[in-house]
């Protein structure tokens, strides 16, 4: 009885796995933004093309295993068979055509969905500067003169130009409901262009492990009407908090599961100052004070060589 019970229990495992998958978030397959929709369509198209090979192979494996089973004595037995031109043509032509189709689609979509490529729209885009920190996200609105932590609001049907950097280790900025992720790296500025097709409240995450507080590094991303966005900006400007140098220094301290914070103002050029902090990390590009030191060392070396030549 025990031996017969095990196969039945094993048969229930796929059902159990299906129940677990029922709790997964399907945001990637139900995006709010146009970029996300195009990426979803690309995923579905590529999957269907690959299934043109996978499904027939699975079916033929089952059919051949059943047809040529040991108990089927009526099956044709050809132990010396080794070649079939028809089979060779099929198993080579179909995959090659699929690879060519995938290559063309991937090439076109790679350029069309380039995260650095501005989105075409008659509406003026809004710029949001993003700074990855331990373990929180800071957002700066240069045109509105405000800053937030772990929350962004922007108008729907309006392109959003994200400028992204990090004031700590490498990270990844990702709003699954809008489009793909882009890395945030210290001393560098990366770009991402997204747009929401309708009003929605989404969750943004860190898509790159960055330490102990990684799992709590989430933020709210809200697409709303232009009127509601303007009202929200006015609300933030009324906040008593100001993101001056002292406030930013306190914010830079590592912390986990941070609440939303709103700042009515921030230190001028804060985003660029954060990028410039790590300028020396860029190979072959010394910072300004290093250039002066290098020039001074060159002059000193020249003087020493001249003095040595005179003594000789």
Automatic annotation (TrEMBL):
Keywords assigned by UniProt, alphabetized: Cell inner membrane, Cell membrane, Electron transport, Lipoprotein, Membrane, Oxidoreductase, Palmitate, Respiratory chain, Signal, Transmembrane, Transmembrane helix, Transport
Chain positions covered by the region annotation Disordered: 282-312
GO molecular function: copper ion binding; cytochrome bo3 ubiquinol oxidase activity; cytochrome-c oxidase activity; oxidoreductase activity, acting on diphenols and related substances as donors, oxygen as acceptor
Record field: transmembrane: 42-66, 87-107
Domain Cytochrome oxidase subunit II copper A binding: 123-235
GO cellular component term of the entry, any: plasma membrane
One Pfam family of this chain: COX2
Major place of residence: membrane
Domain of life: Bacteria
Claim: Hydrolase is one of the keywords in the record: no
UniProt membrane topology term: Multi-pass membrane protein
Ranges where the Cytochrome oxidase subunit II transmembrane region profile domain occurs: 20-117
Keyword check for rRNA-binding: no
Gene3D superfamilies with a match to the protein in the record: 1.10.287.90, Cupredoxins - blue copper proteins
Compartment annotation: Cell inner membrane; Cell membrane
Example of a GO biological process term: ATP synthesis coupled electron transport
Subunit structure, interactors included: Heterooctamer of two A chains, two B chains, two C chains and two D chains.
Family the UniProt entry places it in: Belongs to the cytochrome c oxidase subunit 2 family.
Annotated function: Cytochrome bo(3) ubiquinol terminal oxidase is the component of the aerobic respiratory chain of E.coli that predominates when cells are grown at high aeration. Has proton pump activity across the membrane in addition to electron transfer, pumping 2 protons/electron.
Name of the molecule in the record: Ubiquinol oxidase subunit 2
Source organism of the structure: Pseudomonas fragi
Name of the coding gene: cyoA
